[in-house]
Amino acid sequence: MSYKLQFAELLPYWNVLLQGLVFTIVLTVVSTVAGIAVGTAGASARTFGPAWLGRIVAVYVELIRNTPFIVQLFFIFFGLPALGLKLSETTAAFLAMVINLGAYSTEIIRAGIEAVPKGHIEAGLSLAMTKWEVLRRIVLNQAFRKIYPALSSQIIIVMLGSAVVSQISAEDLTYAANFIASRNFRNFEVYLLVALAYLLLALLTRSLLRALGRVIFKAR
Amino acid sequence: MSLVSIRDVRKSFGANEVLKGVSLDIAKGDVVAIIGRSGSGKSTLLRCINGLETYQSGSITADGIEVAGANTNLRELRRHVGMVFQQFNLFPHLTAAENVMLAPTVVNKVSKAEARATAAEVLAKVGLSEKMDAYPSELSGGQQQRVAIARSLAMRPKVLLCDEITSALDPELVNEVLRVVEQLAREGMTLILVTHEMRFARDVGTKLVFMHHGKVHEEGVPKEVFAAPRTPELQQFVGQVG
Prior knowledge:
The complex is a heterodimer of chains A (220) and B (242).
Chain A: H1 14-48, H2 51-65, H3 69-79, H4 89-115, H5 118-126, H6 131-161, H7 173-184, H8 187-216
Chain B: E1 4-13, E2 16-26, E3 31-36, H1 42-49, E4 57-62, E5 65-66, H2 74-80, E6 81-84, H3 96-106, H4 112-125, H5 141-153, E7 159-163, H6 171-186, E8 190-194, H7 198-204, E9 207-212, E10 215-220, H8 222-227, H9 232-241
Parallel strand pairs in B: 3-8, 3-9, 6-7, 7-8
Antiparallel strand pairs in B: 1-2, 1-4, 4-5, 9-10
Function (chain B): Involved in beta-(1-->2)glucan export. Transmembrane domains (TMD) form a pore in the inner membrane and the ATP-binding domain (NBD) is responsible for energy generation.
Subcellular location (chain B): Cell membrane
Main location (chain B): membrane
């Protein structure tokens, strides 16, 4: 048990690591924004939309929530070309992330919408607002306020889970680690460093989201 | 012509028939107090008038619009029929003024400045000028309910439906809300109130409706009806709550 740490051997690869880190951050930010947009639409459809649309959304949500992310990713990247849809690693990674977070956030946001007192919806309708105006002006704001912590956690989960995209050679932080380890065999140092990077990223994201929440929901 | 006309309305929740053929005519300027035991169908009737509940047969017209018509624009109907609820239902993420401004800006496409002026006017009317920028959580129940009334008034309704609007209030807060309603009545606003405030129904109401088992069991001028209830059911009811 006398392993000698040699972080110096990672130095030549600093730009690979940096590129991976940037990719992971961009992937997370984009899929968070797009995923929550999908989730908002999905949750709205399930609660305020026609029944047939709600059923389609329910199938989507259950399909994604009950299968492994890596299988979803492989299906999109390796499976879809059979149907003539050939995506680059990067596009496939982004798409899989959005679809995945979209499904989870649909459920989270739906819970928030359903927690809004029915009386508020009736009050809005009684003021001659349409169902969609009520959703947008009254319900969603309150719903997001309620589920913001849960949604924040899900964003962190998805960010950490994004490591899986390295398996289709999308060049994220984990891909960079694999790449370096396969060159200099310093597995211990590389994965220790990358683990720390993810830890830092997660903690940073968490406090960033908390600060953001305070700004968005500053009223009261 | 009556402002609100209810003709033989029947409504069931599953096998449970809650309205068993209700007919009622309400003229402009009427202050109608609907009383009765819980479960007698009074709140359901009120909610049918602005289309929050549907009914199976009969007809309701409000301001000339058939509520359950195939092509009825409920939005148009609700612009003229306001409603105030037992639980206030203020929007918690908006200030008192913003609560009042929301429908005029969203529905009537009124400018923010104009909506704010209207909000100031109607909030002054309910005695809450100094609370314009307070959030609902910073207001007492009575104040919240007065904001809710102002919010309805901002749409300039022709009829205001009040569904047990003092039932969720602490006893000492009931009067401040009733005073506002009484003032509206004096100004000629058409009001339909489901209420348990018998004294208010007698003193302010122009028409009393006693509902029992899903029907209008007795109706008339409040003072006369209270002084001499014709049916044993109303005699018993008045005896219990009076």
